[in-house]
Amino acid sequence: MNVLKLLYAYLRMNVQMALAYRTDTAVNILLNLMWLGWELFSLSIIFNNTDTLVGWGPGELIALLGVFRLVNALMASLIWPNTERFNTSIRDGSFDYVLLQPANSMLLVSINRMVVWRIWDLVLAGGLIAAGVRISQTTGVESLAGFLVLAASGLVVIYSLWIVMIALTFWFIKFDNNVTILQALLEAGRYPVMVYPAWLRLIVTFVIPIALATTVPLQGLRGELTTGNTLVFLAAGALSLLIASQVWRAGLKRYAGASS
Amino acid sequence: MQWNENGDSPAPGVDAIRVQDLCKTYHVPEREGGMGEAVRSFFRRRYRDVVAVQKVNFCIRSGEIVGFLGPNGAGKTTTLKMLSGLLHPTSGKVEVLGFTPWERKNEFLRAITLVMGQRSRLSWDIPAADSFLLHQAIYRLSDEEYKQTLKELDDLLDLSPIMRKPVRNLSLGERMKCELAAGLLHRPKVLFLDEPTIGLDITAQARIRAFLQEYNRRTGATILLTSHYMADVTALSERIIMIHQGELKYDGSITDLSRRIAPYKIICVTLEDGQVMDLSRYGDPAQPANGEWGENGGCKNLIQVTANRVAEVTARLLAELPVQDLNIEDPPIESVIERAFAE
Amino acid sequence: MLNIYRRLWQTNWAEQWQYRANLLMYLLYWLVSPVVYLAVWTTVANAQGSVQGYTASDFVTYYLLLLMVDQLNADITIHLLAYKIQDGTLSGELLKPIHPILTNTLVNNLAFKALTLMVMIPVWLLLCLLFRPDFGTVTLPNLLLGIPAIILGFGINFLFGAAITCLAFWTTRVYAISEFYYALTVLFAGQLVPLDLMPPLVQQIAAYLPFQILRFFPIQLILGRLTGGEILVNFLLGVFWLLVALGLFQLVWKQGVKRFSAVGA
Fold this sequence. Notes:
Chain A is an all-alpha fold. Chain A contains twelve helices and no strands. In chain A, helix 2 packs antiparallel against helix 3, helix 3 (58-92) runs parallel beside helix 7 (141-167) and helix 7 (141-167) runs parallel beside helix 12.
């Protein structure tokens, strides 16, 4: 499929760019491990003082950490570098070159830059998830399948949200800083949203739905969601992608000065 | 290299580009400075209509090279953007290779290219060769097509020594060569070039011009280029389209324009001992063009005279003044164009 | 000399005012982590009554005070200076007859702080309304003592921050080093989790390190949880580390400038 060929081509280009800065990669991986150490350490402090957090055990929180890191990796490897690239290209006009290419512009804008070493982060996240699932002794292939599928859907929601955020630049050029809201609120994804006061819970579930990408998949893992619920969340993911691509298209029309 | 043997390019004689009653008006928000105005504009924005392109009509045949001239803000770039599909017009019809550009169909995008001299499409940190590979993937070029085209471009532009260096290490001229190559890897049939030689030194400009001529000869591609440098236009195309304040002022050959606008000649007089004299009783004082003119960097005594009076004035000059050398030349294109715009 | 500072203040304030849009984003970052940890710990405390002596209310008080202290102590030197060293703009400042860091960078920091406080104080008050911290144990003398403690903390933070930023004279990885420094703050200063809740080993090490002067010490001081003796010891420790930071900074700066001028901008 052509999308895969494109992905591969951009991956190659970004690997080459990364190779030019090899030591930076090593340093980044070390820092990443350092933060992982802290995250696990703080979890251990919590569980030294309690057995469960809103009814969730350590295994589940480790799996949650894994999912959180997965979303964070998406942000760090794709969303941040491409936001910067996109904002620059709008400002200096090189975005025109994206439009001149015979490929989906939304896709091009999403994969132009990739922070390649973050693949390591994905592996780490996967490890955490696997370990967390083991520790929590979750039953049933169904729960596991639901968990994975919901995690993927959650990532799609975050991605779609990002697309809408950067598409806003087509209408309001000065709003090129809004992606930081996403990153800041992402911190709330570290813990199950039931922990938060009602107002924060509302924000991270409905306004900037971090919860859809972190807490909800874990609820699937714990078997707390019915099939109906799961389907609703999956539909939300698909719907978000649809909305995002429509907003993107409208934004392009605006950029091209179409009066409609 | 016979690229149009596979029947891709429209045969010469067919219109590659057709523009009809093209109009583009920008709706620009207006705002003065100051805090009060900023608050006011938040509630009710005032808009101003800026007419960028007004009822422009022209047709370009397949295989033609056309120069697109006009001062800054005339509407050249806007028109090019509409032709390449980046902008929607306010009204009017455009057909490029049978496509409506702003529908941005993939087949259309694969058949054209837009190279903007002031904006780079290449990635800064990696060698151009790697950007080319990316281009191959995006345009879905097969390995054979890609390799062959690259080899041909390499022959014409001498890319081998510069392709593997990171783009940021290249000189402006080298980078422009790579930009052009990147724009041509997919063998487009229509080339839109927006100031491709801007900022380059004379030799680099000449090389790019030679390349474009050869490319057009070999492939029959249609080329529409805008430039500030008259030399680009005079070297490459006989036909020019002049645009000023959004309106099409002239569409035809350069020689015809010269003849029509400026039926006058410039006489350069070199007097003995390098004297400078006031020659106003012979003809109007003339300005030399920038460095395109005079043997030793410029003529000190320049007058312009209508064509029919050249013989008479020359005779008088030779008789009345200690003339060491005398040159009769056509006015520089810039002044021709300037006068055309002034009308 | 005072005149110089006054002028610098004016220009820096005007400069920071231009970047006020970024302020909202900075505000968000400042806000989220403490609120997240606050929520976690109050949940635990509510479920079991208290956690090692901290009730839910104690946690609320701790984190809300932390928000303030964090902002008052914050040092953004790395964002102000690192790029100037890396792209050579620093040379302009080196030509002036005043120490660029101890004047311009310092005032820049303070201007930023003033601007952010302007925005943060109303938000903080709102948070207080939402979370209802109990500042009952705060007495006026403790609050007054808190002021020099915070200034001391800022001094240490600023000088260490400047010293780290000066490493940019030698390496491009200053941001990584700065991140590592922040990690030490998290571990030893009670930045994300109150120091009391950390394992005893960590607390023992932290007692000698400067990091807790930055957060934990002022917080506990203001909340009236320290004895007179503990307050004194910590102040002395703080002064000691301030001098160390100053010495370190001077050393790195001098060597750095030498190298900077030798290598050329």
